[in-house]
Amino acid sequence: MNSIYLDNAATSFPKANGVSEAMKRFLDEQCCNIGRGSYVRAQETGMTVLETRERIRDLFDCPDEKHVVFTGGLTASLNMIIKGYVRFGDKVLISSFEHNSVIRPLMQVGAQIVRIPADEDGRSNLSALPEDLSSFRLCIHTFASNVTGTIQPIAPLARKLKDSSVPLCIDAAQAAGHFPFSMSSLGIDALCMPAHKGLLAAQGLGILCITDGFAELLEPLISGGTGSVSDSFAIPSYLPDRFEAGTLNLPGVIGLHAALEATDFKANRLHERKLIEHFTRGLLGIPYIRVIGSLRPELRVGVFSVDFDRRDNAEIAYRLEKEFGILTRCGLHCAPDAHRASGTFPEGTVRFSFSPATTEEELDAALSAIDSLA
Questions:
Q1: What is residue 173's three-state secondary structure?
Q2: Residue ranges making up the domain that contains 307
Q3: I need a labelling partner for 34 at 20 to 30 A (CA). Which of 149, 177, 335, 357 fits?
Q4: Which of 235, 262, 289 is where one domain is finished?
Q5: Alpha-carbon distance 42 to 141, whole Å?
């Protein structure tokens, strides 16, 4: 039985054309470091890394390619922001849908967490915010929930925060690569994203895009060798070196470069939108299930959480794989807050999530299976 992979919110599959080949070619034929040796192979690899920063800059309208910092993953990027900026007792504003990669480091540093209430559509209810937000040190907000798939009102939130001079950090785990947005136009101070989801590259690489002003306020979480200013014990003051101590995951960056070259993100969004509309229509015709989050396709990415009224969700996920070959993710998705806000805690949901390779025929098979199991 062939499997149908619908767990792309965890990691995309398949990866973009050429990713694995580019990573293997680098390891087999170049495999050098950058910022250290001045020989040709190192310079060529350095140029590829620079081109990757430039492509990320252009894709998300970052201030400058030097402001594109490579990290060990999205969680690492968020930890760099939280632990490099937030101090014990600081008030931090978050959505009601944040992942544990936000909640746990905030708890670890002893922040006072204030959650924005959710509206009926599964979006942050900005009308519930106080007029003056200046008592907050930082706002961290997901762009699209990994549980509900709902796209959040980032632009109006950013305007409110700007009026009170509160920096905005965005978790774009389910947004980056799925729909276009401008970091500069939205007023985002720190944009955190993984390479292995919507950008269709390999696991183990994260990206942090940061403004000059916020970078000056941020203390580096990790320090060490950077290949630059080696005569000084001080951490370099300029980007990206200030936040890139140690050896980068160069195979991952090379793979990301290949993914960015091979991918038409505009076409992917159009395809995903059709899949969202198709799957929504199908789900609405099935009794004894509840779809979490907004039912408006324009307010969604291809992430659907389904709660089975008459069945145990874990049993459903098991049977989907064993009887139909459909791979999903069941449970709380490392986001218990999102399930509390959605009324699905502690049981969780069965999550179906798409990639550019997902077809309507695969979704029809999933809908048929859901209908038969519900």
A1: coil
A2: 4-14+264-373
A3: 177
A4: 262
A5: 38
Specify the pairing of strand 303-308 against strand 112-115: unpaired
- Residues 131, 220: one domain? yes
Task: Find the helix or strand (DSSP H, E) in which 280 lies.
Answer: helix 265-284
Q: Helix, strand, or coil here: 292?
A: coil
- Label residue 4 by pLDDT band (50, 70, 90): very high
Prior bond of 156 cis (ω within 30°): no
Domain termination site, one of 242, 262, 282: 262
Strands (E), the chain: 4-5, 68-71, 91-94, 112-115, 138-142, 168-171, 190-194, 206-210, 289-291, 303-308, 326-327, 329-331, 349-353
pLDDT band at 198; cut points 50, 70, 90: very high
CA distance 277 to 295: 9
The beta-carbon contacts of 266-269 under 8 Å, at least 24 apart in sequence, are 266/180, 267/356, 268/177, 268/178, 268/356, 269/178, 269/179, 269/180
Rounded Cα–Cα distance for residues 266 and 232 (Å): 45
Scanning 68-193, the segments in alpha helix (DSSP H) are 74-85, 100-109, 154-163, 183-186
Q: pLDDT-derived band of residue 227, with 50, 70 and 90 as boundaries?
A: confident
- Residue with structure tokens 């106080």? 130
CA distance 249 to 33: 10
In the block, residue with structure tokens 């793979």:
255
Structure tokens at 65: 């390619």
Among residues 279, 303, 299, the alpha carbon closest in space to that of 370 is found at 279
Indicate the residue type of 74. Answer: L
Alpha-carbon distance of 312 to 320, in angstroms, equals: 12
Q: What is the pTM of this model?
A: 0.96
Give the integer Cα–Cα distance in Å for 321 and 109: 40
Give the distance between the most distant pair of CA atoms in the chain. Answer: 69
Tokens of 357: 């390779």
Task: Based on the fold, state whether residues 335 and 307 are members of the same structural domain.
Answer: yes
273/183 same-domain check: no
Which residue type, as a one-letter code, is found at position 184? Answer: S
Q: Are residues 66 and 156 in the same domain?
A: yes
